[in-house]
Amino acid sequence: TVGVEDRPGLTSLRAEGRGIAVEAEVRRPAHDALAVVVPWSTRHFQYTLKDLANPVTGSITIDGTTHDIGRGWAVLDRGRGRWRWANIWNWGAGSGVVDGSTRAIQVGGRWTDGTGSTENGLLVDGRMHKIGEDLTWDYDLSDAGARWHVRGERIDAVLTPFHRRRAITELGVLAVRTHQAFGEWNGTGILDDGREVSLDGLVGWAEESRNRW
């Protein structure tokens, strides 16, 4: 079972399953989020919103042993619209505190190619700095320890994995193949005013997902 309770500035999450229970509270600061509309045609579109660097606290109980989450970060990924039947996307995100500054990275690609829209940006102390260019992704799915490198004119960041996840579902014409790497980001980004900021130590993930639905 899963329960979600939204209150002003706070979301409470509760989930229970066989041998596991999760309780978490996500604070929702009044900061910028990245929202874009990706057009497929003159009639079809997909709206996506990425809300980064939301502080989360709580606990996870596994087989009767409770583990404190400590200080973590949550990302809200919200979408509305109509997807194409077959899609491939890259997505990466990470949040943390660098030099006393709350920062987050949001990068994506492939599914937005040729649409004129991108979902790339840097969040620094509550302000989103949108990156309009398409980014280059380098990674090797055959190597579980391989780093993921994302770069462009305003961002150069590498994710070093500490955990990998693969989820594959094949149901005839419907299929999902997702490869995710969870780890630590290191690199730099350039803000709207030309300042360069460090992204070292941001914790998050990078992924490739291929879908038919």
Main attributes?
10-stranded antiparallel beta sheet, mainly beta, 7-stranded antiparallel beta sheet, 0% helix, 213 residues, 69% strand, 17 strands
Topology:
Blueprint: E1 2-7, E2 10-17, E3 20-27, E4 34-39, E5 45-62, E6 65-68, E7 72-81, E8 86-98, E9 101-109, E10 120-124, E11 127-131, E12 136-138, E13 148-151, E14 155-171, E15 174-190, E16 196-198, E17 202-212
Antiparallel strand pairs: 1-2, 2-3, 3-5, 4-5, 5-6, 5-7, 8-9, 8-17, 9-10, 10-11, 12-13, 13-14, 14-15, 15-16, 15-17
What does it look like?
The protein is mainly beta and about 210 residues long. It has one domain. Helices cover about 0% and strands about 70% of the residues. Strands 8, 9, 10, 11, 12, 13, 14, 15, 16 and 17 form a ten-stranded antiparallel sheet that branches. Strands 1, 2, 3, 4, 5, 6 and 7 form a seven-stranded antiparallel sheet that branches. Strand 5 and strand 6 form a beta hairpin. It is globular. The two termini are about 25 Å apart. The relative contact order is 0.16. The mean pLDDT is about 95.
